[in-house]
From TrEMBL:
Domain of life assignment: Bacteria
The Fumarylacetoacetase-like C-terminal domain, residue ranges: 85-255
Gene that this polypeptide is encoded by: hpaH
The entry's keywords: Lyase
Matching InterPro entries: Fumarylacetoacetase-like_C, Fumarylacetoacetase_C_sf, HpcG, Hydratase-Decarb/MhpD_sf
Full protein name: 2-oxo-hepta-3-ene-1,7-dioic acid hydratase
Length: 260
């Protein structure tokens, strides 16, 4: 375990990396004794630093929802981070690539909470009942540390969250079978990735239920109006200035962004 002083130093290093757009050495190398509990506490302190500068927590993201990614990270469950309102973009946005260090894109669904939801023992049907809308979303992921990374590096680094883009058709949870929402991800007119939402733990709401129970364990919950990124169902695609991105979700619409 790390000391409080080490945790605060680690959080400040991540804040500095984000401001300077220069990755720092992996925290797992700087602090070889770091544990997952430390990593989440560093994430808390990082968020406090961003909030002190005017950001607001708009919701949460879930990562490592695929079995392949969990095995690669030597984890048996997902991880989570925060969505901040100053990293929220709409369909059609022109986004500066230099806001990030090495940005990549993933295709996801975003749940918009219609009521507060807290654990313990939250299940998929509780999530569906509490969700007001579901919308197509892209997550921009970014690393503020060098690679390769241990799971503690990823968690401390706000689960690699960079930004979120929302658009497409707004649907209610029961409008369609959300397990079978498919999407293609195109970069500069070429389809780079495709996937189906059932790849997220068998059901996109399963990750949200997991998150609610995890937040309960640390005294948290999902709040009405918050956004929850449920996890990617494609591999990440590298992006750079000049790229034009289009994600097509078929019957529930499409969204696109360009990078300057």
């Amino acid at each position: 375990m790390l000391t409080d002083e080490e945790r605060r130093a680690a959080a400040q290093a991540l804040l500095t990396a984000e401001e300077d757009r220069v990755p720092i050495p992996q925290l797992s190398k700087t602090y070889p004794h770091i544990e997952i509990e430390d990593a989440y506490r560093i994430q808390d302190l990082w968020a406090e630093g961003r909030i002190a500068k005017g950001a607001r927590v708009a919701g949460h993201k879930i990562g490592l929802t695929s079995r392949a990614m969990q095995m690669a990270s030597k984890m048996t469950e997902p991880d989570y981070g925060r969505i901040l309102d100053d990293a929220l973009f709409n369909d059609g946005a022109q986004i500066r690539a230099d806001l990030f260090i090495k940005p990549r894109l993933e295709v996801e669904l975003a749940f918009i909470m219609g009521e507060d939801l807290e654990g313990p023992s939250t299940r998929i049907y509780d999530v569906m009942r509490a969700t007001e809308f579901i919308v197509p979303a892209l997550e921009i992921i970014d690393y503020r540390t060098e690679v390769p990374r241990a799971i503690t590096d990823t968690i401390a680094d706000n689960a690699a969250f960079g930004a979120i883009v929302v658009g497409g058709r707004v649907i209610r949870p029961m409008d369609v079978d959300i397990r079978w929402i498919g999407a293609t991800l195109s970069k500069n007119g070429i389809i780079e990735e495709s996937g189906v939402s059932a790849a997220v733990m068998g059901h996109p709401a399963a990750g949200v239920a997991w998150l609610v129970n995890k937040l309960h364990a640390v005294g948290g919950k999902l709040e009405k109006g918050q956004i929850v990124l449920a996890g990617s169902f494609t591999r990440p695609v590298d992006i750079a200035a000049g790229d034009v991105i289009q994600a097509d979700y078929g019957p529930i619409g499409a969204l696109g962004v360009s990078f300057l």
